[in-house]
Amino acid sequence: MRLSVIGCGYLGAVHSACMAELGHDVVGIDIDPAKVDGLNAAEPPFFEPGLPQLLSSSIASGRLRFSTDMADAAGSSVHFVAVGTPQKRNENGADLSHVYAAIDALIPHLRPGDVVVGKSTVPVGTARALAEKISLQCPEATLVWNPEFLREGFAVQDTLAPDRLVYGLPEQDNGAQLLLDEVYAKALADGQPRLLMDYETAELVKVSANAFLATKISFINAMAEVCEASGADVSLLADAIGHDARIGRKFLNAGLGFGGGCLPKDIRAFMARAGELGADQALTFLREVDSINMRRRSRMVDLTREVCGGSLLGQRIAVLGLAFKPNSDDVRDSPALSVAAQLQLQGASVTASDPQAVPNASKRFPDLNYTNSIEEAVRGADAVLVLTEWEQYRGIDPQWLAGLVSRAAVVDGRNCLDAQTWREAGWTYRALGRPKVPAMAPVVA
Ligand code: UDX
Prior knowledge:
Layout: E1 2-6, H1 10-21, E2 25-29, H2 33-40, H3 51-61, E3 64-67, E4 78-81, H4 97-106, E5 115-118, H5 126-137, E6 142-145, H6 155-160, E7 165-169, H7 176-183, H8 185-189, E8 194-198, H9 199-230, H10 234-242, H11 263-276, H12 284-307, E9 316-320, H13 335-345, E10 349-353, H14 358-364, E11 369-371, H15 374-378, E12 383-386, H16 391-394, H17 398-402, E13 409-412, H18 419-424, E14 428-431
Helix pairs in contact: 1-3, 9-11, 9-12, 11-12, 12-13
The site of uridine-5'-diphosphate-xylopyranose (UDX) has 20 residues, from helix 9.
């Protein structure tokens, strides 16, 4: 099938490459010439495992190309809209200007029978408004809302083999569902569930899934606060409650909390939209979810001050991890970067490292010292902070590290190190939601 993908940021670039990998003929369209040139050279402007290889093979086969010209969308039968919906400046709501600009630019190139597929995360009600706009100017084109659930770091896998497909359809779909089934024929043949619904429900599926995930993380971080107050251990608690299949252990990792380009802005936009709909009371708990999440960052700064003997002034702090999560170079609303910057602002001298995110972090906070080497980051440090749970950091040998620092104190912001091993190697080990001194060594059954 011939497909166009409008917007080649994180979502659109991955979607374009994956659709081409599935055998479709794809043109990705973006207004940014530098991004388009990079993608045509199989060099995405962000780190995503597996994506460069996919781009290379599909571009070489002739099934994939990128362009700045919307006219190149003409001739495709399905047009995916994958532009960003960032948080508005100084407001909680989502900025939909890119979505409207993309639709306005696409409409003149639509042919009767074409299907426009919305993938961007939008406030409920947007799809119906866009469908009306499209039907006024091209009555024989149909809009489907098909939210995306990909996780950074696993974006290729999540797009090629999604755990579910959601189609938000109009009352009369004019064959749009069948056309989209053809696009996703492989996933459907593999037995992935496909759920059909109205526009509003499809839009809400996406934001409510993200709200649920954010709530789960903040729930365990709230328990971490209670554990800190009572001397209990949140890691043991999470393991124990996670055995209940109704609760599940996934997304119960206590630590610095959530960040990135989706969860924080999506829960805020959701609250703002609920307010516009007069349903604000239903989502007041998300305000608390957001507050718990932000409090973890301040607690991390306090814990660091504590291991430094009460003051951060002049302390040399090594920060390992800047990305909002491992396998990503994304520092948007990154808890790690926010803690690193706070420490520096409070008088510490921070040297930070990350396997991928140093270039992005140094653009946002040029005042920190950056290095690509763990060794350089920790040399002479008064405290080592692990703020993103990269495999490289989980596997650090504490004996080796102890020989490089000036004080063997580690603060584990992601509960990703083995406390006992580090303590046995002579380190003061502190972590969010865990006692200063373990009450008893955990017994593994
Ligand atoms: C999220 C959703 O998972 C995805 O379905 C949606 O399409 C986009 O938003 P992503 O932003 O890639 O994906 O990150 P995710 O893996 O969900 O992690 C979000 C944040 O939560 C990260 O900062 C991560 O470190 C944190 N997190 C995750 C925790 O603090 N604890 C956990 O147990 C899990």
